[in-house]
Amino acid sequence: MWLPVLGLIIGIALGLLSNFSIPDEYSNYLSIAVLAALDTLFGGIRAHLQNIYDEKVFVSGFFFNIALAASLAFLGVHLGVDLYLAAVFAFGVRLFQNIAVIRRILITKWSSK
Amino acid sequence: MISFTVITIIIGFMLAIQFQSVKKPVVRDTRDTWELREDLQKEMELQSKLIREIRSNEEKLANYETERTQGQEQTLRNTLEELKEEAGLTDVSGPGVKIELDLIDNALIFDQGQQMLSPELLRRLLNEINMYGAKHVSIGGQRVINTTVIREIAGETKINGRSLRNFPVEILVITEDMKTARNLYNRMLVSNASEEFFIDNLKMTVLEPQLKITIPAYEDSIRIRNIEPVKSDKGGN
């Protein structure tokens, strides 16, 4: 259970220590990729709590979502339409839903104890 | 579980990079017009304060200057300066005329004896120059003052105790203004002195008046013997 948290900390430390930064015009893509990744992460946590967690679905979903979000943003830039807002909206709604489900599950777990 | 960890590592990495990229522009001048105006006003107040300070200091300086010039001490100093200048203790410059006394070319000299400038002639020349409005005179670099003596000692003409041996002897004359200088020049051109010097195998050349001629100060201290101020009676003289 603590391994993912440790991984998150290691990742953040790596990112901060590497002193790596991306140019301004690509920060859009990265932000939406981060959003997608978070969405997948919380989805995974929810699935785990609901005991329907499938590793293949999780990993493929992670990469597929990121790729989709990035390509949507790319398309939006080239069409002159802010398509990445669609991705932001979708991911945002799902993020809230996932977190709400996680919360409910945790509450039922706590109260049943 | 391991794949989950790997993915969290990737997410952490992405988050960190996103943070760093967004954090970059830190220092920006975000003051709006009003704030800028206030800052400008502050600076202007400072400026006016400094200007006031400068002005007051300048006023003080001017006050001190006037006090100094109007003070009694300064008056005395001025008088002393004037007297010194009159007595010939300072260097003087002004418009004037230059006169040169030189030997006539050797071919013309019949008498091969030592050439000398006779004190008698020099005194006469000096009188003439003084008559035509000279204010300060120097002969051969020696300032002529009231007590200057021109005389012959052991076959040499001396002025202020110094020999006039080297020809040409330069006589510098300073006059009141350029007009007087021109006058003096014209009078000297037609003066008899030239012929009198010629008899002594000397040639007198009067040079054009110049705007600036500098005459050196009297070198020695002035000693006055046998002279004392007149004691005036009470209430009058």
TrEMBL record, chain A:
Report membrane topology.
Multi-pass membrane protein
List the signal peptide residues: none
- Keyword Membrane belongs to the record: yes
Location of the protein in the cell = Cell membrane
GO CC field: plasma membrane
**What keywords sit in the KW lines?**
Cell membrane, Membrane, Transmembrane, Transmembrane helix
Q: Where are the transmembrane segments?
A: 29-45, 57-77, 83-106
Q: Which InterPro entries match?
A: DUF1290
Q: Which family does it belong to?
A: Belongs to the sbp family.
Protein name per Swiss-Prot or TrEMBL: Small basic protein
TrEMBL record, chain B:
Q: Which Pfam families does this entry report, sorted A to Z?
A: DUF881
Keyword terms = Coiled coil
Coiled coil location: 37-86
Top-level taxon of the source organism: Bacteria
Membrane-spanning intervals of the chain? none
**InterPro entries given in the database record:** DUF881
Show which residues constitute the signal peptide.
Answer: none
Family designation: Belongs to the UPF0749 family.
Protein's UniProt name: UPF0749 protein YlxX
Source organism per entry reads Robertmurraya siralis
